[in-house]
Write a structure and sequence with these properties.
Elements: H1 2-17, E1 30-36, E2 39-61, E3 66-71, E4 78-79, E5 84-88, H2 91-141, H3 147-193, E6 196-198, E7 203-208, E8 215-216, E9 221-237, H4 239-244, E10 250-255, E11 260-269, E12 280-287, E13 298-314, E14 319-321, E15 324-331, E16 336-348, E17 351-356, E18 363-367, E19 378-380
Parallel strand pairs: 1-19
Antiparallel strand pairs: 1-18, 2-9, 2-13, 3-5, 3-8, 4-7, 5-6, 7-9, 9-12, 10-11, 10-13, 11-12, 13-17, 14-15, 15-16, 16-17
Helix pairs in contact: 2-3
Length: 381
């Protein structure tokens, strides 16, 4: 019995001391590399796919009805300001213009020559009659002229006054008729000129929607014209993007056709969303003096927003576990590694944005973190 007790005691001592006969030493703290957490001011770039459109467009039509005689341009043609683009058969309008010119000539003759002559004649006759009337009255009062003779000259005076008044009224009417004739002639000239469509500015023909020989009503579109000295890059903006953007922001527009980049600025943000795409139209104005931009080209539009402070950390320092993303930071007071949950955001190269969980000044463990436990003592390099 005593022997068995001694054997057990010897075995226990063996277990405690180990095979080497000496005490077991604790493992040294793991060595880790640290990197201080800092914030960086980083501009945010927003990118969209867009298309090139003319800065100004117009649907051109004739101001009068008629039969189209000819259309001189085709879709894609470059045109200059004042260039004739299409013409109506102007025969009827030419006849109306000649008739209006003849009527104006007749009315002008009445106003300028015939009616003024009648007024002058009536005025001369009236002046003569008034002089005779004054003399007859003096003689009548002196008893040298009979009452019958005075009545005759008085009647003549009344008749001549009426004739003069009628001539004056006829002249006023003639002047009004001449003015109406001038207006009618101006209208005829305007309608004759309206049988042509001229380009309002330098641009390019976007579409032709009519053909020679067709009858067209006044105001019915014949062709669409775009002004190309300046162009728009149109993009679709979400609700959130419209609140972050403002007109005047600088934009870079890469156009795939010419394989070149244009610099412009955000010119407009639409106030009404499309019922189809539910996006708001944004327009970046671009100079196109050399004409290389053409309507319908596809573009990539990028706008850089003012920078804001962000916390960026090495992406390799983040541990992706089932219950979230974690990092280890070094706690100098205790010399231990502390696990901290973080929310990550945008990846920029070999770094990732830490949205929550870290602050500038934290000592981030960037090497050796994969074997650590929360609270484990570590030795910084």
């Amino acid at each position: 019995m005593k022997l068995r007790f001694c054997q057990c005691l010897t075995f226990a001592v063996f277990l405690l001391t180990g095979c080497g006969g000496g005490p077991e030493h604790a493992a040294p703290p793991q060595t880790v590399a640290l990197s201080p957490v800092t914030s960086e001011t980083i501009a945010e770039e927003l990118v969209w796919s867009g298309n090139i459109t003319p800065a100004e467009t117009a649907r051109l039509s004739f101001k009068v009805a008629g039969v189209i005689e000819d259309i001189y341009v085709h879709a894609g043609d470059a045109v200059a300001a004042g260039q004739t683009l299409a013409r109506l058969d102007a025969g009827d309008y030419e006849v109306q213009t000649r008739a209006a010119a003849a009527a104006l000539q007749a009315a002008a003759a009445q106003e300028e020559h015939i009616l003024p002559a009648k007024v002058s004649q009536a005025k001369a006759q009236l002046d003569l009659t008034l002089a005779n009337y004054a003399r007859a009255r003096e003689l009548y009062e002196a008893g040298a002229v009979s009452a019958v003779a005075l009545e005759e000259i008085t009647a003549k005076k009344t008749a001549d006054e009426a004739t003069y008044a009628q001539a004056t009224e006829a002249l006023n009417i003639g002047r009004a008729e001449a003015e109406r004739a001038r207006s009618a002639y101006d209208l005829a000239l305007s309608q004759l000129a309206a049988t042509e469509i001229k380009s309002p500015w330098d641009g390019v023909v976007l579409q032709v929607v009519a053909a020679a020989g067709e009858s067209t009503a006044a105001g019915y579109p014949v062709l669409a014209l775009g002004q190309t000295a300046e162009m728009w890059a149109e993009i679709g903006l979400t609700d959130a993007e419209t609140t972050r953007l403002a007109p005047g922001l600088a934009a870079a527009v890469y156009v795939y056709g010419p394989e070149d980049t244009w610099r412009g600025s955000l010119d407009e943000i639409g106030a009404l969303a499309s019922s189809v795409t539910r996006t708001f139209t944004g327009r970046v104005r671009l100079s196109n003096a050399d004409g290389r931009l053409r309507a319908g080209m596809i573009a990539r539009v990028s706008i850089e927003l003012p920078g804001k402070d962000r916390v960026l950390i090495p992406a390799a320092a983040v541990l992706h576990l089932a219950d979230g993303d974690f990092v280890y930071i070094y706690e100098a007071e205790s010399g231990a590694a502390r696990r901290r949950q973080v929310e990550t955001g945008e990846i920029r190269g070999d770094k990732v944005e830490a949205l929550t969980g870290l602050a500038p000044g934290d000592q981030l463990i960037v090497e050796g973190q994969f074997k650590l436990r929360d609270g484990e003592r570590v030795t910084p390099q």
